[in-house]
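Support case: user asked for a sample of complex input and structure output to validate their parser. Sending the pair below.
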Amino acid sequence: MKIAIASDHAGFPLKEVVSEHLQAAGHEIIDFGTNSTASVDYPDYARPAAQAVANSQADRGIVICGTGLGVCMTANKVSGIRGARCTDEYSARMSRRHNDANVLCLGQRVTGVGLALSIVDAWLAEPFEGGRHARRVAKIEASL
Ligand code: RB5
């Protein structure tokens, strides 16, 4: 898969770990920064990554900040994006099965590295169920 990834300073170390993990698994990464722990504003990084998913430059997106909240709020402002902030594997799987989430939002200050990687793997592998869930997801877009 082609995966757009971005973080602010608070998510930068986890972004690097997730990027390496995904590349080792054969995924292609499009890195929208940031590239250090110097303080930046998360919308400046999360938005371009979400836009890359919305315009099909990437198949999925992963955005990371301290809590996962700011990047998720930003991603969900982009039309066509269904960003899910996940702190457990069950939610990650369900965000795919029922909500067809196309951006995963993680918080480095909330979720440890081991769990974060398990969440990422579960989220990437889980299919969308379609059916009645497709109708509901279409209604999300219709309400824009
Ligand atoms: C940065 O201090 C922090 O506010 C940011 O990473 C994020 O948690 C915001 O939602």
